[in-house]
Amino acid sequence: MNNKQSLPWDNPRFRNWIALLRAEKAVARELTRALAPLDLKLGQLDVMMNVYRHPGMSQQDVANRLLVGRSNITMLVPQLEKQGLIRREGDTKDKRVIRLFLTEAGEARLRDALKVYTGIVDKVMAQSTPEQCDAMGEQMRRIEEALKSDD
Questions:
Q1: Cα–Cα distances in angstroms (integers) from residue 62 to residues 42, 49, 66, 90, 98, in the given order
Q2: Whole-angstrom Cα distance, residue 120 to residue 130?
Q3: Fewest Cβ atoms nearer than 10 Å: which of 81, 87, 113, 148?
């Protein structure tokens, strides 16, 4: 970068983007702290929420929804299974596919975790009016759509 180019932090879009990232990190840090007594990590909660909403989804489907590699899910699922929160079942039609389901204990833990999660979301989103929340959500969906890969 030469001296005649403007620095990125002089650009309001860049500054606001950094503010967004810092806010996301603050929320993730708070959520990590609040989930610790439930013996859950953020990635585990993400998996559990998706499996609850879509029982029987494959590990690959979870990875796709969470925008992570299947190896991430392959590491998280055995941890959840060991805790008795999730169970894996082979697909009856395709032996290569593993289907995921929450156990009763998993559903109970998820309910507790969602109380924690929604409490934090309510605290954070109370900083905005309902209209601002809707606008923020719409903007985030547009950003996601603009960066979607074609694979």
A1: 14, 10, 6, 15, 11
A2: 16
A3: 148
Report d(CA 121, CA 126) in Å as an integer: 8
In terms of phi and psi (left: phi > 0; alpha: psi -120 to 50; beta: otherwise), the region of 56 is left
Q: What angle do CA 12, 13, 15 make, to 5 degrees?
A: 60
- Tokens 């959500």, located at residue: 137
Angstrom distance (rounded) from CA 3 to CA 93 = 62
pTM listed for this prediction: 0.84
- Per-residue pLDDT of 95-117, as tens digits, reads 888 899 999 999 999 999 999 99
In 54-129, alpha helices (H): 59-66, 70-82, 104-125
Compute how many other C-beta atoms are within 10 angstroms of the C-beta atom of residue 64.
Answer: 16
For residues 99 and 57, is the Cβ–Cβ distance under 8 A?
yes
SS3 102: strand
